[in-house]
Batch of 3 targets.
Target 1
Amino acid sequence: MPRVSSKRQITLPAAQCRIVGINPGDEYKSFVANGHISIVRQKKGSAWKCLSHLNRDNSISERQSLQESIERRRETSR
């Protein structure tokens, strides 16, 4: 089983990289959600529609949503 190094580096299993098309030198994005880290290969234009599976609530502005997220985070960290 791979381990995290003292520099917090990880080695991705070669078989998994082949499946998702990650190659040496590729750029990636990592995201944290629900206690899990997801690694996604970054490719030109990949941000377009990457969150399209989420339902948008048009009654709330992006600013309101951000503020509510910040407030929830503060409440849970107390």
Target 2
Amino acid sequence: MGKYHADYLLKGEVAHAELAAVCSTSPHKLEAYKDKVKVFSDGEAMIKSGEIDAVLVATPHYQHTSLGICAIEHQVHLMVEKPISAHKADAEKLIAVAEKHPAIVFGAMFQLRTEPRYLKLKKLIQDGDLGEIVRINWIITDWYRTEAYYASGGWRATWKGEGGGVLLNQCLHQLDALQWLVGMPSKVRSFAQLGRFHNIEVEDNVTAYLEYPNGATGVFISSTGEAPGSNRFEIAGTRGKVILENDQIQFTRNENCMLEHSKQSKIGFSKPEIWNVAIPFGNAVLPHAILMRNFINAIRDGEPLIAPGADGIHSVELANALLYSSLIDQTIDMPMDGAAFETKLNQLIRESTFEKKVVEVSDEDFASSFNR
């Protein structure tokens, strides 16, 4: 992801932003940039160098918190790739530091918030076209990954290196979009299978139940081992339902509220009259760059952030809670106890005996899933 962001910045896709430096602990990844920008092998050294006004952190998960705190404390504006931290307790630490430095802009890279399809769904909800939300279902199982993917880095799919699997890595964007659209659940119960389809120690197959403060319920299903997989998002309300699937939005609108119809109808099997509407939408052009332009405008002109960094705690908390529920075989009340999950995660790290083989995979192999 760091290479992807660096390349569009070098191409001038973000006005008023100049790529001044890059950093990696892998020397071969810096070769292409040596004649273009300053290069560093240590992230904190780059942040403290005085060469940059802002930094985008796109490293393994556990470094997001420490590098983020370093940036904020040294007056460097911060954009963090997902997740903002590997677990909720660390996210709370990062956000607490950011709150002490309100002049420093802190953004999160949740580019789905720029996609017209999700903006259309948000408008339907905010305008009341769905009525009160009663149920959500999201089946996102087209994250298929091979053993070669997981072997591409020693940190991948390990408790110590990543802190989780499909929930924390692949699904963070969907979990952010979910809470952005319908809010956070009040309780969750999850069943996560560890290494079901791959030689890994973290979860790669998950089915979860969600319950919301208003009584709405939901199901969230994801996997990196299922092919061809599905991506179907359905939201049902008292005034109708909307389905996002196969690059189409289908809105079925009730003529009247289903609850009112139930009370008023004299016929046992009648239903509200419906309208079927196909809602058109396009695709965002370079959605990551859109967020970066917004980040730069926030620094220069105070433009409101599309994805404030502090919002990133919600998707981290959902990923943690869904995993934690399965690990301890219990329903989790939200908000979850971040310290309890951190303790469990540290236990998994201490007790791990997992060893993995690492192979080299080109950066281009990861490009296909950037915008999902």
Target 3
Amino acid sequence: MSKNKVKLLNNPYGQVSYETFAAGKHTFADKSGLTESLESENMTPYPVLLRPRRFGKSTFVQMLKCLIT
């Protein structure tokens, strides 16, 4: 048996608030690079986020809300 230990990430399962992620040291997928593509001229005015459940759609929208205000 191996003596190596696995370090678990601090994953706040079930939370969607970006402010909670930024304030606490939680692990999440930073998708702020997608904001440039949302601001391009050929983007539709109402983009649709088609991703499976539990894939970070609500957290991404909360992040956009924080960037706008």
